[in-house]
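ok so i was messing around last nite and threw this chain in just to see what happens. nothing serious, just curious
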Amino acid sequence: MSGVKARAMDYQSQLLSDIYRAKSAHDDKGLQIYQNNLHMTAMRSLSVTYPVLEQMVGEQAMFVLSHRLLQRELPDSGDWADWGRQLPELIHNSELYAEHPYLVDVTHFEWAFHQVSRKAFYALDSASLNRLADGALEQTFIALQPSLTCLRSSYPVHGLWLLHRSKAGQGGPSKQQLEDVMNEPETGCYVIAQGAKNTHVTQVNEEEFNWVQGISDGLSVAALLDVFPAFDFAAWIASAIRHDWITHLE
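result:
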């Protein structure tokens, strides 16, 4: 980032901070307009980043949440899409959590999907797969898409996410549809990654989740096979290639 751009972003952040925290007099209508515009922009931003959450809690609740979030997390860049990371923690500490604890995991899921969808996709270097034939698995490492993110949840967040996305603009899902999803078992392990055509979510089992985590932790193929001796590596790597999870072997 150039020095000029960094200074501009600092200026924008400071300006937003000054506008939001200023204690305006009742006759300072100009400042009040700026503050109101800031609140509305914040709410619209959260609605774009967390569309499923907005369906679940409603517009008024999103306005309250955006107002509270501005008190603890002001935008620090020129892009509102970078703002909103602390919303799951805010919900966890809010009155919503007691009756709707799953909302925290839904927001974690939406933030992860939002972040992954903004990252670049890197095509597989298929020639690097020849390293598997060399037999030096101790020195062979799997490079995953930089966007790839692993999430866990004790709630069916993927099902809730899919249901609400399918009902967008239709008044939302029915009570029965929500109950059906909440009662539908999920593995609770998810991999979100940028693909060649779109961002995709894959439910995986516990062993596959731990395997991918092991790759992220920097384990070699040999070390992974030592930790997970019963894991079907051949089947997994074929599946990982289909899902665009791998960029190369090194």
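not much to say yet. Residues 4-9, 11-16 have pLDDT under 50 and may be disordered.
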